[in-house]
Fold:
Amino acid sequence: MEPRQYLVVVEGGNGQNYSAYSPDVEGCVATGDTLGEAIDNMRSALVFHLKGILLRGQEIPEGSDGTALYLTVPLPEIKPEPA
Structure:
C-alpha cells in the first residue's frame, strides 16, 4: 500500500506544550512537550488510527489537497463617532 499524505495542524499551548490534529482523519490527535515531539506523536497516532480503521473493515481516508499558512493582516481602525 502506498504511503498517504495528510494535512496536520499543530497548535502551541502557551509555550508549555503542543497539540496536533488532522482534519483529514477525524478523531486523530496527539500532544507533545515540544514541537518535534508533537509531530512524532502525531505520525504514530496516524498510523495507529489508520490501522484501527483497516481492522474495522473501513476505507482509509484520502488526504486532502489542503494546506495551512499564516496571513498577516492589518487591524482595522475604528474612529469614534462625533458626539
